[in-house]
Please model this.
Amino acid sequence: MPIVRVQEADFDVGRELEVLTGGRTDVGALASFVGLVRGANDGRGVSSMTLEHYPGMTEKALDDICREAASRWNVLETLVIHRVGPLKPGDRIVLVGVTSAHRGESFAACEFIMDFLKTRAPFWKKESTPEGERWVDARASDDVAANRWKG
Amino acid sequence: MVTLLYFASLRESLSCAREQVPLSSASSTVSNLIEQLRSRGDRWSEAFAPGRNFRVAVNQQMADAATPVKPGDEVAFFPPVTGG
Model:
């Protein structure tokens, strides 16, 4: 069962990942990814950012992505925590954690989950810059990253 | 009636987050619904102009122009996603 949470509050990476491994002896590998707010994007300073989501669909999409990863690789547990609301440069945005018996599966599944999250999960970023607020445009490079998992 | 939701830049340009609209016919699709919204003119025809890059979900599943829409459905319109 994937663990999926969308929340305003920050998360403790160590404690969250401990949930995936605590009390088990079948886990040989834990791969994780933490996404952070950058202080500059497309050449402009970012003083703050607001993340919006589609309550209900977002959680469902993240759950589907984790299940898809589990159907492709022999993973034990998957976890995605994604923040919404106001965030500042340096803040954590997202945590992905995957466990497996051997490292190959968790590395691949972790990257897959992030690539699909970037292109399939309904989140939108709005940045505050010195020139005012702007919605972040989707990147073609994210589509390319997601497409390499096809076939 | 169907519930329409708008997110992010689309919500702002349309000044609308949520509304209920009647379906124009019993066998409606996403495409019919978009036509219905375009016919409102002004910012609606602009936001949903052909070639504009937006996504549609029906009952919280990604959909396309041919996806059927029936009374009681929740249809969401939003720009390409930018999370992570």
